[in-house]
Write a structure and sequence with these properties.
Layout: H1 7-10, E1 21-27, E2 33-37, E3 44-49, E4 59-63, E5 74-78, E6 89-102, E7 105-114, H2 131-143, E8 153-160, H3 161-179
Parallel strand pairs: 5-7
Antiparallel strand pairs: 1-4, 1-6, 2-3, 4-5, 6-7, 6-8
Length: about 190
């Protein structure tokens, strides 16, 4: 595939980054399958079925036009009452960030809420979210690789809105340094 339109590279990070973003959904809430967007084909590939008896607690994907320390777009979770169709772009607001460690090193995951959601759209920071959501997400990421040795994952710490904004800004800058200003498509 040529570089004419690669979703994670050519779509802007959001309508007003870093405070209003696009989340490209790969794994819907409630699935036990790990889907990933192929960087070469733009197809959603089933990477694996999770080995542990867990399901994604929220929608999961990435923020286009970003480049995280692990060499992939920045991961994002979107708090939702119901699953979102994979390959959907959702307009979201970041409210926090989960910092974890896995077999590849440090891994950061932005926690966000849909901007126009009547249930979560008015939330601005991690502290606005009921604690059970945080506990459920932590439990998922601490256990989802348990039966996939030598892979592992360990949640280190949660940070609020301001740290999420800083990390997103850094990942947008890193993307521009690595690829130039090619993220130009505005959905």
């Amino acid at each position: 595939m040529n570089d004419d339109m690669i979703y994670w590279k050519h779509i802007v990070p959001g309508p007003d980054p870093p405070s209003l973003l696009y989340a490209f959904i790969e794994c819907p809430k409630g699935t036990h399958k790990k889907y990933e967007l192929s960087k070469s084909t733009n197809l959603l590939i089933m990477d694996r079925v999770l080995h542990s008896s867990v399901v994604y607690p929220q929608d999961y994907g990435f923020i286009p036009g970003t480049y995280a320390l692990d060499g992939d777009p920045l991961d994002v979770l979107v708090i939702s009452n119901t699953p979102t169709q994979p390959m959907t772009l959702a307009r979201v607001k970041p409210i926090g960030v989960l910092v974890m460690q896995d077999e590849k090193g440090r891994d950061e995951k932005i926690l966000s809420v849909p901007r126009d959601c009547p249930f979560f759209g008015e939330m601005d920071d991690l502290d606005d979210l009921p604690r059970h959501y945080i506990d459920e997400i932590r439990e998922f990421f601490n256990t989802y690789k348990n039966l996939e040795e030598p892979a592992y994952a360990k949640v280190k710490k949660w940070h609020g809105h301001d740290d999420a904004i800083r990390i997103i800004s850094n990942c947008i800058s890193r993307f521009k340094e690595e690829f130039g200003n090619i993220a130009i498509t505005k959905p």
